[in-house]
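Hi everyone, sorry if this is the wrong subforum. Our group has a chain we'd like a structural model of before ordering constructs, and none of us has done structure prediction before. Sequence below.
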Amino acid sequence: METREHNQSLDQGNLHSITQTLSAEIFQMIKDLDEDKNGFVEFGNVARGVLGQQSQYASRYLDPVWQNEGYLYCGEGLRVEGNPEDYHSLRIYKADIPKFVERVFASKKRFY
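Answer:
Right subforum, don't worry. Here is the predicted structure as tokens:
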């Protein structure tokens, strides 16, 4: 039941706004991620499965310290648990993943 509620939130709350920037394939990858009873997903699954990056590098988008090294801070206003310095501890709220992914993709377009 938790999963259905969170997926429903993901569908209704973010689908319209993200369809302009995220492909259907990426959106489906996000929907397929397993979340815990509180709606959080292990960040490593997002990094590898959606962004195609190792979590040690993708976690830099959640740490404002890395802004001076070419990584935009993409975690503003998102529900994230854990410490970016310990990327294995990171978890991100499933309904916030589309916004995070949008921001990461947009930041890459700025630099490349």
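For your construct planning: The helical segments are 2-18, 24-32, 43-51, 55-58, 97-111. The beta strands are 40-42, 80-81, 91-93.
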